[in-house]
Specification:
Helix content of chain B: 55-70%
Number of helices of chain B: 14
Structural class of chain B: mainly alpha
Number of domains of chain A: 3
Strand content of chain A: 15-25%
CATH topology of the largest domain in chain A: Rossmann fold
Number of helices of chain A: 13
CATH class of the largest domain in chain A: Alpha Beta
Strand order of the largest sheet of chain A: 1-13-12-16-14-15
Radius of gyration of chain B: 21 Å
Oligomer: heterodimer
Helix content of chain A: 25-40%
Shape of chain B: globular
Radius of gyration of chain A: 22 Å
Distance between the termini of chain A: 44 Å
Distance between the termini of chain B: 57 Å
CATH architecture of the largest domain in chain A: 3-Layer(aba) Sandwich
Chain lengths: 431, 319
Amino acid sequence: MIKKSFLGFAKPEIKYDVLDDVSLELYDIPIPESVVLLSDGSPSQNPQLAINIGDRVKTGQKLIPYKDNDSYVISSVTGTISSISPYLGDYGKTYTAISIDVDANETFDETFKKSSETLTLETASNYFAFLPGNLPFHTFSNSEKPITKIIVFGGNTDLLITTNQYVIKSELDNITKGISILKTITGINDVVIAVPRELLQGAGHTGAKLKAVDLEYPSANPYFIMQNVFNQVIPAGKEIIDSGVCFLSAESVASVGKAAITGQIPVTKIITLVNKDGTKGLISARIGTTMKDIFNACNIDLNEKDRLIIGGPLTGSSIFSIDHPVHTDTDAIMIQDRETISLSEDTPCINCGECIRICPAKVPINILVRFLEAGKYEEGADEYDLYSCIECGLCSFVCVSKIPIFQLIRLAKYQLSMIIEQPDTVEAEDE
Amino acid sequence: MNKDKQFIVSHAPFWHNGSSIPERNVNIILAALIAVIPGIFQYGLPAIAVVSLSVSMAMIWELALNWLTKRPVSIGDGNAALMGLLFSMLIPATTPFWVVITGTFLVVVIGKQIFGGIGANPFHPVLIGLAIIRVSWGEFFDFDQALLNYDLGFHMAYPLAALKSFGTSAIESFSALDLLMGKQIGGIGATFGIGLILGGIYLILRGFIRWEISVSFLAGIFISAFIFNQVDPSKYAGPLFHLLTGYTLIGAFFLSTDDSSSPVNFIPMLIYGLGCGIMTILIRNIGAYVDGVVFAILLMNLTNPLIDKIRPKAMGKVM
């Protein structure tokens, strides 16, 4: 954990890790006895299941859980479906969890192979939405927000994570192939690879322009890449996709390339594993492997009241159960010992100004947090730049009063989005 | 092997840089002690009595208010102790005990707790307490009168009072070095200039106070005193004299830099500091009071919410 230096006068330097060649070993987690696949999208009131418990599935087979919903998963193992249940994620996001008991003999599904020779946008969107690295494929078929530029990012937005750097270093051929496929099927020729400055040399010859991203946190935040590397400021409250730019992780592009080369949809996810003592390792696991199986395979012993984090130390999310599976966007797993956990407190803001000095987006946090604590979300958004926040987590990191500022900001954004989506129900709840 | 364990779940970020309110206050207390200890040596046992009583009474008032308002006990954060210490630094060593007790009540209860405790006070609590005490029992703050029975081997006249009454001819006997080394009478912890400067530099380097405020405060004093001095050197003292006398240094490093009553953005901090400095000299040179620091800072505290609205445009803001 990065602590405040003795001289607090200077701004702390928080830097991303650079993957050295030395650590280019990938530890393969053995295929577990069962996996859990999370399918996006909330089903309707009385969902009609399109798959049943007891169905046999092959590796790489596409599974559509509901008849009236297009979202799907790609089975990462060969086996039998043992349960289908709803699953609740952060901020009310709903998933459907499909558990599969794994068979001893693995067979691969051939359906994709047949169509992989002549890839079109349609076949791609039929298979590529569940790729490791989380490819947001639906954005290419959205006619309301046309995409004009693709940025492949070879780093991770949070600290410690080196998953995408590993992909840039080891799977450049797949990325090259992936980029050419994406260019062909989407018709977008403006593809740029953005990588941490230290990796610039190794990432040439992919058929895309190359841009360097600084190592100082939060330079790798997509909003900052847009501003610093492409000189394009995203207006507050808008998403990057609104300006016609689509960010893809290097891993997802490599997966596209791999799928086309091998004719099989990749089903393993590369994950940075950060242990209690801060040591890091890169592992590869089938999508759907539970934390329990990963910890068993890596001989990691957990204690009561430790903290399990999916993602990095500043923007990740903590989970309460070791039955949580690896999803397509699980770039890192981090374990914190109970001794080192710092908890937030209920002390009020003392107006020390640390957050103001560190905020990269220049949000007036000291005032904003007072409004958010009082539940005045609309005032916060209208007058104190709530929507300029790019969610880097630095304000909470330096807060002397240990106020959960980041949580307040996310909660405010979430609550406001609920009001915009369904104004009637929220008002009714308030009453 | 990890079955049925319960984990801590919380929101990101999962790291914290380790700073805390007690750390902050303890460091400010330590820095202030550099100036308090020479004062104690100068004035002896009465000074120890005043400092101890002030610190302990401030903590007792805070505790009492915690109980009365049924809020969590907050004396552990060190802020009450700091307020008590700062209050004792500003008053003469001979201050009667009941003035200290009343003063700390005003500091902690009127200055801080009724606004909601730490972080909620719009004015510096110590200055609120001191201003009320001074308006009510002004005779205890006439340093010449209060320290009448002391003879410490240097010029025993309060420099600012001498200047106010007799003009610059009366302050010729004060050398800048003597003033810097604390050879002047005044509050227990407000006269040892070099100690206050060292303490202030320590706090600035550690990041516990904002250098912009201290530096612009001193610059404000310097510039305005210089202009007055140029206009009429026989009536108005030079900038160095004003920098080293009265509450200037303690004001620049310990009073104007209070977190909750001062701005946090860069330009507002400069305006605030300059304002404090200029107001101080205006009060000293053409106002009724001998020293203007207390009211100058209180006045600028009042403007803090307004001037702190001058802030950089947030990222992605069109307007």
